[in-house]
Amino acid sequence: MSIFSGLMANLTKDHIVAKQGFNRWLIAPAAVAIHLCIGSVYAWSIFNPPLIKQLGVVTSAADDWSFSSVVWIFSTAIVFLGLAAAFAGKWLEEVGPRATGFLAACLWGGGFLIGSIGISTHQLWLIYLGYGAIGGCGLGLAYVTPVSTLIRWFPDRRGMATGIAIMGFGGGAMIGAPLKTYLLSLYYQAPEYLGKVTDLNLITEGGRRFVEVAGNNVEVVVASISDMAKVPVPGPEGVYVVGTGDTGVASVFITLGIVYFVIMVIAAFSFRVPAKNWKPDGWVPPAADEPSKKLVTDNHVHIDQALKTSQFYRLWLVLCLNVTAGIAMIGVAKTMITDIFGPSLPNIVDASFAATYVLMISVFNMSGRFIWASLSDYLGRKNTFHIFFVIGILLYLSIPYIATQASINPAVTWLVMFYGATMVVFTMYGGGFATIPAYLADIFGTMHVGGIHGRLLTAWSTAGILGPFVITHLRENSVENAINSLVQKIDPATFQAKFGATTAHLNELVQAKTISISQLMEIAPAGTVDPTPTLYNSTMYVMAALLLVAFIANLTIRKVDSKHHVQNSHPELEIDGIK
């Protein structure tokens, strides 16, 4: 009991007030460490392929989870991130960053462990509960804790301070992507191989494929050359037994849960808060008439009063739409680049290339958070977001053209253009996250900026649903249309010979995952253009439209009316205190 009491005492806010002469730069490494751990959520797309092949291992089996069902795990984590940040923001101001950081470590690490049980037992709801709900709450607490702490330690460089912390969140996938890829290959076990398709007598029943082994029908999957190029340890194409082997993803969850917990606990115990009325030596607040400081206030708005201002909801819309556009691409990044360039450049865009792409997303996401947030100290937050939206619209509109040209005329040039366009988008996506806390501090003051930031992150929760919904819904429609179009071009006899069933059973075969676009392309007439690269075109047009709305919302943001300031709305509160 004494150990527990001592632990709780070390977590309280009163216990972590920094002494005079404390070096504020010591807070930065702890903040970055926590955000690096939780930022691995951006490498979620690494888990999508093995999760949808958990039973088939080399390719999806009939009872495997669908892509649309697992991609929502990432969305659930983002939803609970925003909800936890919104509800715990005020509590953070009361208990301090060490307590919330420690709780975040327990939730994030524990979420991975619960998720691993769901994967091992093939219970999808446990992954949603563990990684999505519990882990998502840990994300929310771990996200706002370092940000609000650094803003108080760096009132002279708010943009840079938030950029430092949130840079770590963007960079989490930079470490997480190769780490997850390595661990998946380490724990991967190939399923039982029966031989080539031509050497076996395949039976099709209810859309599923079977092979008779020792008098019993054994369910199998047929893996093409393309399928085997995507697994961590490539093997021969052919027929594999369902339910044998291991994708390794459950073991990866256990490993990461333990590692992240340890790192986050150490970082949380490194946090300190500045003493009351502390400010950097020699710092003088900027003059209100400086061009880039027109929205900056010397006053403070109470957390409850902030919700009564139009500025809060306009900023909410700005963040929501900017995140929706970016998160839709991040959640399916590995699948997207494989779909667009895998058919045309298979020797370049393989599993390793796709994993590296996810890694580079993290690099640009991370660098964008620091660079754009630091530039916003000079450009102003409003102007910075204007840049995001104008350039973003142009880049999203360019991607469908690039994808279409890649399908018609395969060339590395289109891959380079796609890579460049998306990486710039990801710098601005990360830059938006890093700049928004400083934007809030400029408009509402620093008194309750952590809590206000937490409530604004409900925009992230909304985007976490909206973005993946848009991209999965539009992609599924595109896949369905592509399959129907290809089937119409294929000779019925050739179709039946390939799949052991007639085109009348098309829906049944699709639902059992026996048919895919790549398999249809193998028997399509010569000269047929692979529709896979254009599966995301409609999504990009929608994202460009969302950024246009965000641009208009940002354009209308003005200073908060003085009636909302603390001295007018809550005169009983101390301006320098946090109550």
TrEMBL record:
Stretches that traverse the bilayer: 25-47, 67-88, 100-119, 125-147, 159-179, 249-271, 315-333, 353-372, 384-403, 415-440, 452-471, 538-557
InterPro entries for the chain: MFS, MFS_trans_sf, Proton-linked_MCT
Alphabetized Pfam families for the sequence: MFS_1
Keywords annotated in UniProt: Membrane, Transmembrane, Transmembrane helix
CDD domains to which the protein is assigned, alphabetical: MFS_OFA_like
Entry GO MF terms: transmembrane transporter activity
Coiled coil listed as a keyword: no
PANTHER family, per database record: MAJOR FACILITATOR SUPERFAMILY (MFS) PROFILE DOMAIN-CONTAINING PROTEIN-RELATED, MONOCARBOXYLATE TRANSPORTER
Record's protein name: Major facilitator superfamily (MFS) profile domain-containing protein
Organism annotation: marine sediment metagenome
Organism ancestry: unclassified sequences, metagenomes, ecological metagenomes
